Amino acid sequence: MQAGFLQKRDGRIILVKRQLRKGRCFMANKRAKLSDIAREAGVSLTAASFYINGKAKQYKLSPATCERLEAAVRKYDYVPNLFARAMQQNRTFLIGLLVRDRINSSFWSDIIAGIENGIAASGCHLVLAGSHVDAAGELDAIRQMRAKGVDGYVVSPVIGGDGGFPNLSELQELAAFRPVVGLNAELPGIPSVYNDDVIGGRLVAECFRRHGHRRVALLGSGGYFALPRFRAFEAFFAERGIAPLRLSTPAEALERCSEFSAVFCGNDYLAAALCSNAASAGIRIPERFSVIGYDGLDWLKLLSPRPGTVVQHKGELGEAIAAQLLRAFDCGSCESVRFVPQLEIGDTVGPA
């Protein structure tokens, strides 16, 4: 079925045709309103609003009522007017999500999916940015998000060489005006949802010790040695008079593999690269040395041997962040949530 309207283009009057979808009712010259949906479904404007805003279960709308409302939405091809809603509630329904490195990592994609799942019914949407482990870049991204008028912030902060947060005071000031939730880092004075990195580092250290390893190493680049996971690992062995060797690349690790019998990698990418390079060089793992990574990325299961890893609760963490931020929007406050990581030994841990 086709319909059309006249439009002036380049001095000519032409007929612009539109294809109408079967079963849909397009209202002439105006956009369908919430009142049209309520009238069509035979319910109050309030009930229609509850349904459109994803609160049908909260306000106990019956299944029959929801079915009538859904039929009305489909009939009129109804799309909520977010601009009017935002002006009425003095909100933008935007949430700023800032991660400390690149967004395209599969680690962050799982967390982002969890957050999106958690905010799906709220009408909110994410504005994403990565600071690329740069404190100045982090502040710039926050300024850009403030300019967009986001309602709240989820921040995975840059970590300094001393293990602190260079922009902590700025984040605390920001939290005085808008809800801020720390992502996978315990930010002083700011509610945070995080995996306990200290426990994660100790799990790896205790595993190596149980297998008799005393010549241990850390593999990481940039700021990894400031992360709590590495600091906890080093502290565990320091208590036993052992100073772990520090390595910066998989290539360096292979060159110096005679100096250690077990290596803790800062993430799963480094662990996978080290295992792959070792296989190419004819070095067998764990016969030559043991390897454990960090994060628990799904694709590790496809590798052989499968690297050991510390599993972080990524999807659950994202959903918990969404829940705390939405709580802050509704109640004005939220709280910290701590997840405890788990160790999976995989196929790359053996005796010293």
**SSE string, helices as H and strands as E:** EEHHHHEHEHEHEEHEHEHEHEEHEE
Which strand order spans the largest sheet, edge to edge or round the barrel?
A: 4-3-5-6-7-13
Name the helicity range: 25-40%
Strand content: 15-25%
Mean of residue pLDDT values: 88
Approximate shape: elongated
Give the CATH level 1 class of the largest domain: Alpha Beta
Name the CATH superfamily assignment of the largest domain: Response regulator
Number of helices, where a helix is a run of at least 4 consecutive DSSP H or I residues: 12
Which structural class fits the helix and strand makeup?
A: alpha/beta
Number of strands: 14
**What is the CATH third-level topology name of the largest domain?**
Rossmann fold
What can you see in these coordinates?
With 352 residues, the protein is α/β, with parallel strands linked by helices. The chain folds into three domains: 2-80, 434 Repressor (Amino-terminal Domain); 90-195 and 314-339, Response regulator (Rossmann fold, 3-Layer(aba) Sandwich); 197-312, Response regulator (Rossmann fold, 3-Layer(aba) Sandwich), CATH 3.40.50.2300. Helix content is 38%, strand content 19%. The protein contains twelve helices and 14 strands. It has helices at 34-41, 45-52, 63-76, 82-89, 106-119, 135-147, 168-175, 197-210, 228-238, 250-255, 268-280, 314-331, and strands spanning 2-9, 12-19, 94-99, 125-130, 152-155, 180-183, 192-195, 216-219, 245-247, 262-265, 290-295, 308-311, 337-339, 342-344. Helix 1 packs across helix 2, helix 1 (34-41) packs across helix 3 and helix 5 (106-119) runs parallel beside helix 12. Residues 1-5 have low confidence and may be disordered.
